[in-house]
Multicopper oxidase (Triticum aestivum), 598 residues
Amino acid sequence: MVKGRFLGACLLLLAAALADGEGEEGKRGVPLLDAGRLEKFVDELPDMPVLRGYGVAEGGRLVAGELAVGMYDTMWKFHRDLPATRVFAYGASRETATVPGPTIVAMKGVPTRVTWTNHLPPHHILPWDRSLAAARVGNAAGIPTVAHLHGGVQQSTSDGHSMAWFTSGFATTGPHFSSPAYEYPNQQLPGNLWYHDHAMGLTRVNILAGLLGAYRVADPAAEAPLGLPSGAEFDRNLVLFDRDFRSDGALFMNATGNNPDVHPQWQPEYFGTVVIANGKAWPFLRVRRRRYRFRILNASNARFFRLSLSGGLRFVHVGSDSVYLARPVPTEGFLLAPSEIADVVVDFAGSKHDAVTLRSDAPAPYPGDPGEKADTVAVMKFVVGSKLEHDPSTVPATLMPRYPKPDTREAVVTRHIAMYEYTKNGTDEPTHLYLNGAAYTDPVTETPREGTSELWEVINLTDDNHPLHVHLAVFAVLKQRSLRRVDEFRDCMRGGASGGAGGRNDALACGMRRHLAGGRRHVVPRQERGWKNVFKVRPSTVATLLVRFKPLEESSATASGKSGRFPFDVTAGPGYVYHCHILDHEDNEMMRPMKIVR
């Protein structure tokens, strides 16, 4: 993103703040909140409610869990001094709904069945840009929603397909809707997932309104011997995102698009001035002088967090996204993209101070202009106890080394996935973003074969860093290289300097290898060299991924009766998708369908 585009967005934000009304709530004359007036570290970090995704039968045998999780229109208190905010929230009931929603704890190999129910009102509390290729309800009222379990390995009928949405009372349903009852087999390795809304064209506003929550797959037999910090006090989910508010507590999202004659309300990225952790603005947590485990999810629309700890404390990474690392990786700081999860251990026994601040210094938008340095902002504070105490936990030298190592010889196909941003003629203001020059509704072009692996060369021809997410699959990042003479290459890929959607989109014919020759090689951080489901693709680079369309653990595959097969029919249902996880990009068609074949 170039500076002119960012300044334009700032001016539009100012104009919206001074306007008489905004959004579908018509907040006339209510000024924006000055975030600097909110005192930091006055609210304690809450623990979200826990829903057990399994049942216990006679004799202690684990059986499938049956849950009903609703989406509710309710109120939530983000800060002591801010009036309660109207939100959309997940919960077992309206009274227990929270932002983020309850943490669902599942057991490996034990199915979790969730019936998702939509109790939302006829109209949205945030601007809904109907010019996007969004869910269509015609003249009917109601808010389309559909839940996706991010990182989950499940049949596409339970994957939360963006066109499988439904409104309250099923008054209107999407073309791929079949049932609100989803089954998550949990036949995958232990790790961290999250669930969130995935309705086409509404993901950014539905998640901004509060529809998100954490999900764990646990495997006590494999995890307990590791000796990592455990128990509710010492093993915590930490869900981060940013928001803006009006002075009356209402959520604020700019209702004026950067190209209002094209998209009346869509903005290319949403950034808020208030940092939220577990539903509270800049909270604090009292900790003892011992190790804690934090499963940190960036649930922001577009904000990257570059996290570090004050006082010289370090993180020790034990997992990335939904998979454990083979060995722990210590870092002084790390970059976390929207939808990425970092599973880390922090040892407060080594703190020289009685307070430690978790902070971020990532530019917004990321990576910003060359040489740009962002202000360091607080995320939350840890209040450290005075006494050193016995700590039975540890971080072992090896974690889960039995996972298969990436092997490029397994790849049966090499695909080129190009990222494009299109702007209005004569301006730098984007109108939409495509993958491989194709709209979301264009015919499927990616048809991986179950039980195989593929090489994906992901080509970022934009100025933004795009976190790529692939449903169902995991992948390993093999390398990332800068393109030389990128303008020349981009013009060829687009079919000329003024090329529009579609274009040539032929990486080999446009000389990708020649443009990579002599280009800089970017080091993939050690904590990101395992199996992942999200990766940050830098601007003007090509990232090479080994994408695995088969279970990561052979025992899960053999449960289906055939090696390399998933324990369900991957060909059934509407199929899967891959997309940029900047929600504002995803909603404006930076997403493509994917159909797995046998």
About this structure: Residues 408-555+564-594 form a domain with the Immunoglobulin-like fold (CATH 2.60.40.420).
